[in-house]
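Quick check before the chapter quiz. The format below is the same one you will see on the exam, so make sure you can read both the input and the output lines.
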Amino acid sequence: MTVNVYERYYKARAEFTGVRRNGALVMLISDSEAGQITYKAAVTFFPHRDEEDFAVSYDAYLEKELYAGKGRRSKKKEAAYLERLRTEIDGIAGEHGASVLWDEPLAPECRG
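Here is the expected output.
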């Protein structure tokens, strides 16, 4: 079962496939099956051309696996991954010349 443990929209600066991206959806994703669990930090950058444009594009999706192994969801592990989420996202976004503007959220956070 895949769960978005955390997700939030932010303003961003990026360009992918020749298209300027002004928004980002940041996620901490948990995927578990048959006693195995994986946690990933993920971000997708989208155009966000106006205040109502939240059409997420999947051609600018980046992710990094934080953990994979035996186990199940853990609030303690999730809290630790959430603490380092910004650093992880900044790292994978920076590799592509992109940045998330953390001080400019576009919507409230959602937790699953």
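If your answer matched, good. Strands lie at 2-16, 19-33, 36-46, 61-70, 99-105, 110-111.
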